[in-house]
Specification:
- The protein is mainly alpha-helical and about 375 residues long.
- It folds into two domains: about 100 residues, no CATH class; about 160 residues, Fusion Protein Consisting Of Minor Coat Protein, Glycine Rich Linker, Tola, And A His Tag, Chain: A, Domain 2, CATH 3.30.1150.10.
- The protein has six helices and three strands.
- It has a three-stranded antiparallel β-sheet with strand order 2-1-3.
- The radius of gyration is 67 Å and the shape is rod-shaped.
Length: about 375
């Protein structure tokens, strides 16, 4: 009896041990791969050879345990299969997401590279445009400088010609005065010779008269008186003639001086008129240059605002009036919006403030017009 109970106890212990080992294996299979169900070791024949009632009880208990274990294995296998299917599904979804993420990253990388290339090209074009503008401005400045130098040289040439003409007139005047002096000297010399000749004739007449003095003393006295009277008349007439000639020369000199003064005034008036015309032309050219520079810097200011502006399709075809006040260096002092689309005005004001500093000319006249500038801004969409 004791031997049968001992054998029964051993069979129970073996069964419990086998169940424990099976549970351990099932636990390991849940963390790795499912294991194939191990065949349940059949109880040894010698362990079942007992009392008939004990054998049935053991068999029923073993069947229940076996069914229970089979149900547990089935459920565990089902759970493991579901877990494996879920893991496969998750892995598949993960791989799909990773593929989609990789594709999106690749697409984003390509887009960024394309944007960088486009930005590089735009920057290169902007540099080329700025270089071209700088070259054009430099060429225009050189051209204007040459025009100014040429006009200055022409003005100096006209002035030199006027001075030369005036000097020539003064030389001609001096030459005329010299000729008049020579003529006066020649006339005086002629008078002196005439006087000498007259004196010689008088002395000859005196000598002849002395010879005839005794015979014709009375006649001589009468002749002398007559000659004295004639001489007096001649002297008075000569004095009158000299006075008249002197007066005529004085009046002629006054008239010449008046004519020369009128001519000089006319020349100076013509020169002043030509000089005023040249100055007006230079002022007009300068004003045109200033307006051209103002337009050029206005376009550059609008370009700077456009680059710093956040645009949208809703702004297409719309505009805004902006008033911008700048310092001498181009620093933005204030910006206000006037009539126009509210969204465009707000974006324009923000773009000007974002830029902080706008293009400013070094030319004082151009800069003075740019310090308080009004412009109509239309976003480029």
């Amino acid at each position: 009896m004791k031997d049968n109970q001992s054998k029964y106890s051993v069979a129970i212990i073996i069964s419990v041990g086998l169940h424990a080992i099976l549970l351990v294996l099932l636990g390991l299979s849940a963390t790795s791969t499912p294991l194939k169900p191990q065949p349940q070791p059949k109880p040894k024949a010698q362990a079942i050879q007992a009392v008939v009632v004990s054998e049935q009880a053991v068999k029923q208990h073993a069947d229940r345990i076996k069914r229970s274990e089979q149900e547990k294995r089935r459920k565990e296998q089902q759970r493991l299969q579901q877990a494996e299917d879920h893991i496969k599904k998750l892995n598949k979804e993960r791989r799909q997401k990773e593929a989609a993420i990789a594709k999106a990253k690749d697409k984003q990388l390509k887009a960024e590279q394309a944007a960088k290339r486009a930005e590089t090209k735009r920057a290169e074009k902007e540099v080329e445009r700025k270089l071209a503008e700088a070259a054009a401005v430099k060429a225009e400045q050189q051209r204007l400088k040459k025009v100014e130098q040429r006009k200055k040289a022409e003005a100096e040439t006209k002035k030199a010609n006027a001075q030369a003409k005036k000097a020539e007139q003064q030389r001609a005047k001096k030459e005329l005065e010299r000729k008049k002096s020579e003529q006066a000297a020649a006339a005086a010399e002629k008078k002196r010779l005439a006087a000498e000749e007259k004196e010689r004739q008088r002395q000859a007449a005196v000598a002849a008269e002395k010879k005839r003095q005794k015979a014709e003393e009375a006649k001589f006295k009468a002749e002398q008186e007559r000659k004295r009277q004639e001489a007096e008349k001649k002297r008075v007439a000569e004095q009158k003639r000299k006075a008249a000639e002197k007066e005529r020369q004085r009046l002629a000199k006054i008239e010449r001086d008046r004519q020369e003064k009128l001519m000089q005034e006319q020349i100076e008036a013509e020169f002043a008129s030509e000089l005023d015309s040249e100055i007006q032309q230079l002022d007009a050219v300068r004003q045109q240059e200033v307006l051209s520079e103002v337009d050029k810097y206005t376009a550059r200011i609008q370009g700077s605002i456009q680059r710093n502006m956040l645009t949208s399709d809703a702004m297409k075809g719309k505009s805004c009036a902006l008033n911008i006040r700048l310092s001498d260096s181009g620093l933005v002092l204030s910006v206000t919006s006037g009539q126009g689309d509210r969204v465009v005005c707000r974006a324009g004001v923000n773009a000007v403030n974002k830029a902080g500093s706008l293009p400013m000319s070094t030319d004082p006249e151009v800069a003075n017009k740019l310090k308080n500038i009004n412009l109509i801004f239309r976003p480029e969409i």
